[in-house]
Amino acid sequence: MTSNPTKTALITGASSGIGKALASEFAKDGYNLVLAARGVAKMQALADDIQRRYKVTVTVMGADLETHEGAARLHADIKAQGITLSALANNAGYGTFGEFSTSALMPELAMMQLNMNTVVSLSKLFLPDLIATKGKLLNTASTAAFQPGPYMAVYYATKAFVLSFSEAIAAELEGTGVTVTALCPGPTASGFQDKADMLDSALVKGKKLPTSEEVAAAGYRAMQRGQRVYVPGTMNWVMAQSVRFTPRNIVTMMVKMMSRPVQAAH
Predict the structure, then answer these.
(1) What pLDDT is attached to residue 187?
(2) What pLDDT is recorded for position 191?
(3) Is residue 186 left, alpha or beta, with left meaning phi > 0 and alpha meaning psi from -120 to 50?
């Protein structure tokens, strides 16, 4: 084994937003990349650009990680190419916005599959690689992880799962050389709100949001430091801490007020 082995990172949800920005952060640092998402054409354009700019190898893999077999299939495809990972960024995820009583069930079940089950599956399947390489695991959670979220009840719950899971396995992996980081951004200009159909939510309407690039750069640095939980932005951090000292019914009421659909002015 050479003294400077080639590092390879898998990034899910790499076709847009924070995942796309993370790809550049890893490539700048000399990582070869495996990019996985459904949007193969978008990822291929990104791969060509990154290879030209950073002179690293980028492998594009189409993967539908909202399905039960998606994670296992992606793992098999990567292993079939003889690739060993030294970093895994579980970034793929989305949210749905609206009242639970009237929202469609299937998108929420698919979201649970992607935001939780796929994170667990890929972490489990690639952990032998990460242990062998003393690698890095980065799970994209959210400031939503710290409290219940009316109007996005299932999404907030999935991110609470990711945060809890990440902190627990980080503790288990102490001494192995593997670090686990839960990246917990607040609302970010990433295309997430479009997909969640929440552009009329008071949480984001009229707000200047940090860019995906800013969040990815800060999250990448936190991962390299081995920080277990990283909340970018001072105000986001203060809000995440404050819920620990505030009665939960008050926190939930505040989130409900902050997230409510904004009525158009007449």
Answers:
(1) 85
(2) 58
(3) beta
SS3 content of the chain, % helix, strand, coil (to 5): 50, 15, 35
Give all strands of the β-sheet with 136-140 in edge-to-edge order.
Answer: 58-62, 32-37, 8-12, 87-90, 136-140, 179-183, 229-230
Q: Give the β-pairing of 58-62 and 8-12.
A: unpaired
- Ranges under pLDDT 70 in the chain: 1-5, 189-208, 234, 237-238, 245, 262-266
Give the pairing of strands 136-140 and 179-183: parallel
- pLDDT value for 195: 52
User: Residue 265's pLDDT is what?
Assistant: 41
| Distance set, CA 128 to CA 9, 79, 89, 124, 125 (Å) | 14, 12, 15, 8, 7
Q: In this structure, what token pair is assigned to residue 126?
A: 């690639």
Predicted pLDDT at 198:
47
Buried b (16+ CB within 10 A) or exposed e, 161-180: bbbebbbebbeebeeeebbb
Kind of pairing, strands 58-62 and 229-230? unpaired
Assigned CATH class of 8-259: alpha beta
* pLDDT at residue number 2: 35
* pLDDT number for residue 224: 98
Q: How much is the CA Rg of the chain, to the nearest whole Å?
A: 18
DSSP string covering 85-145: -SEEEE-------S-TTTS-HHHHHHHHIIIIIHHHHHHHHHHHHHHHHT-EEEEE--GGG
The pLDDT of residue 255 is 77
